[in-house]
Specification:
15% of the residues lie in helices and 37% in strands. The chain has 235 residues and is α+β, with helices and mostly antiparallel strands. It folds into two domains: 174 residues, no CATH class; 42 residues, no CATH class. The strands form two sheets. Strands 1, 2, 6, 7, 8, 9 and 13 form a seven-stranded antiparallel beta sheet that branches.
Length: 235
Amino acid sequence: MKRVNLIIGACVLTTGAAIGLKLHAADHKDGPAEMNDPAADITDLYGWMSTDKTQVNLVMDVYPNAPAGTMFSDATLYVFHLNSAATFGGTATETKIICGFDSTQKITCWVGSGESVTGDASATAGITSASGKTRVFAGLRDDPFFFNLTGFKATVADVIAAAPTLTFDGTGCPALDATTSGTLVAQLAHGTAGAAPANDFAGQNVQSIVIQVATSLVTPGGKFLGVWASTHARG
């Protein structure tokens, strides 16, 4: 099973009028088991609400660096877990959105126990349930994740090399002069001095499942909503 969580505390949706958050969790590098089954390997999870709070938008991306012609696995279930509560940190009620594909790539998604949608969801507009409360798209998309992996690796190597000579303050933070600190920050942002921001995921694709669902369907426990995702072998 592969699982990705939105960080608790920083990443909670609420249906109240005062707050509307866009949330993101990422996991682009995994162990051998997940990498050997890329169609079940979650790279990113996104969640946000419509401005009027009547709809929840969810995106699960799988299959890192997916080539053209990639298909979703008909042996995998893709699951969004939505935990709603009346108060922040209170007892939550879980609603699952479970999606599966057949061999022709038709998708079926079940929202809780009373809502479902099925069909070919590869067109940009997706497909909509009979009630009109759920809309689904599934297909190949450009990887939205932005990260300078090259600069990150170079910075890690520099820090490891400098570690034996570093001194630390009472809180455990290393004492770095402004020049060294600035060089490391610039390297993380750009990879090389003076270069434009680098994105090592540019031009890569992922398989995306995008769902828009009525807030009323996924908040039986209250207006505070936490989201995580998982993939499972189909029994």
